[in-house]
Write a structure and sequence with these properties.
CATH class of the largest domain: Alpha Beta
Distance between the termini: 49 Å
Helix content: 40-55%
Number of domains: 3
Shape: elongated
Mean pLDDT: 84
Number of helices: 12
CATH architecture of the largest domain: 2-Layer Sandwich
Structural class: alpha+beta
CATH superfamily of the largest domain: GAF domain
Largest sheet: 5 strands, antiparallel
Low-confidence stretches: none
C-alpha cells in the first residue's frame, strides 16, 4: 500500500528522531520538534496506522514507536536525505587517507581504519582476488647455510616473502645465479598462469643441479602465489557495537562478536555483494541471512580498477544507523580507494 505524504513525513520524523535518541518516539515529541502542522492527536492516529501497516513497532504498552525493518527499508529507499560531506569532514578523511602506501592490501586496511574512525561503527574490508596480477619480480636471498628467503613482487606492488630450507650443497653464489634465472623466466606471467606445472616447466633446464635440490625454492614461490590470491579480511572497531544501547544485552553482543570472529563468514558477507552492481548496497535487519546480525544493518560498496570490480568494503552496525552519514562517507572513501589503486598501478 502506498503511503500518503502525511504518513511519509511522520515516518521520516520518527526515524530521524529515533536514530539520534535511541528512545521510542511519541506523538507529542513529533508535534513539538517538527513543523508538520498537525496536532498530537492526529499524529498519534497516523502512527497507529503506520504500526498496523508494519512500518512501526511499539516496544511496550504506553511507549512511543520505533521503526521496524520495513520502516527503515522505506526510509532508506525513499525518504533519506544523503547530504554531501562537509569540507571539515572531507579534509579529515582525506588527511587520514593520504598516507603514502605502496601496497594494495595496505590501502584497503587503511580505508577500513578510516571508515570505522569516522562513522563510529565496525568496518569490514576484503582484499581483492588478483589472479590477473602479473609477477613483477622473483628474488631468492641467501640467509644462512641451508636457508633462503624467497620474495615475489606483483605489478600492483604486493610483496610476499617466505623462509625456505634448502640443501646445504647450494652455495650462496650459486643461489644468486638461480635467483636471477628464476626472475628472468617467471616474471611477466599472471598469477593465474603461474601454476606448478608452469614453474616446473620453465625451470626444468634452469640449473645443472638435481631437480630435488631446487624444488624447495619452486614450492616456496608457488606457496607465496597462493597466499596472494587468498583474500585478507580486515575488521576495525569490532567493539564499537557495545556503545549502542541495543547491544547492552550480553547475549546480543556475544552473537554479534561471534560472527565477526568467523573470518569466513565475514568474507562471505562481503563477497556475496561483490558483483551485484556499482551502487552502495544496504541490508537491513532480517534481510541479513546470518542469525547473529539480524538486528544489524550491513552497508557495502565495491571498489575497482577502471570498470573491473575487485573487492568490497563495508560497515556493520545497529539498524538504528546514521544511514546518510554512512552512505556519503562510504561513497567518498570508495572513490579515494579507486584513485589510490590507480596511482599504485601508475595509471592515476
Amino acid at each position: 500500500m502506498l503511503l500518503d505524504n502525511r504518513k511519509l513525513r511522520i515516518l521520516q520524523a520518527i526515524i530521524d528522531d529515533y536514530i539520534h535518541s535511541a528512545e521510542p518516539v511519541g506523538s507529542r515529541t513529533i508535534a513539538k520538534k517538527h513543523e508538520l502542522g498537525l496536532s498530537s492527536a492526529t499524529i498519534r492516529n497516523e502512527m497507529a496506522d503506520l504500526e498496523d501497516m508494519g512500518f512501526l513497532e511499539q516496544p511496550y504498552t504506553s511507549a512511543g514507536r520505533v521503526p521496524s525493518d520495513k520502516g527503515y527499508r522505506l526510509y532508506v529507499d525513499q525518504l533519506m536525505q544523503i547530504d554531501e560531506l562537509s569540507e571539515p569532514d572531507i579534509e579529515k578523511i582525506r588527511k587520514d587517507m593520504d598516507i603514502k602506501i605502496n601496497e594494495l592490501s595496505q590501502i584497503i586496511r587503511n580505508a577500513s581504519v578510516v571508515m570505522s574512525k569516522f562513522t563510529k561503527y565496525t568496518s569490514m574490508a576484503v582484499t581483492p582476488h588478483i589472479k590477473k596480477s602479473v609477477l613483477k619480480a622473483v628474488q631468492v636471498v641467501p640467509i644462512d647455510q641451508g636457508k633462503a628467503l624467497v620474495i615475489i613482487v606483483t605489478d600492483s606492488n604486493i610483496v610476499r616473502n617466505s623462509l625456505v630450507r634448502i640443501s646445504e650443497r647450494i652455495t650462496p653464489d650459486y643461489l644468486i645465479q638461480v635467483s636471477n634465472m628464476l626472475n628472468e623466466k617467471l616474471k611477466g606471467f599472471t598469477l593465474e598462469m603461474l601454476k606448478a606445472h608452469v614453474i616446473n616447466k620453465e625451470t626444468e633446464q634452469l640449473t645443472s643441479l638435481p631437480y630435488d635440490l631446487i624444488k624447495p625454492l619452486l614450492d616456496g614461490i608457488e606457496d607465496l602465489i597462493k597466499t596472494i590470491d587468498k583474500p585478507e579480511i580486515y575488521l576495525e572497531g569490532t567493539t564499537n557495537i557495545l556503545n549502542f544501547p541495543e547491544f547492552r544485552e550480553v547475549q546480543k553482543a556475544k552473537d554479534f562478536l561471534n560472527i565477526l570472529d568467523e573470518k569466513n563468514l565475514v568474507s562471505d558477507l562481503l563477497i556475496s555483494n561483490l558483483y551485484r552492481n556499482n551502487d552502495i548496497i544496504i541490508q537491513i535487519g532480517s534481510e541479513n541471512v546470518r542469525e547473529g546480525i539480524k538486528e544489524c544493518s550491513l552497508v557495502t560498496a565495491s571498489y575497482s580498477v577502471g570498470d573491473h570490480v575487485i573487492g568490497t568494503i563495508g560497515i556493520i552496525g545497529p539498524t538504528r544507523m546514521e544511514y546518510s552519514k554512512v552512505v556519503s562517507s562510504m561513497n567518498y572513501i570508495r572513490n579515494k580507494i579507486n584513485q589510490e589503486i590507480l596511482k599504485l598501478l601508475g595509471d592515476g
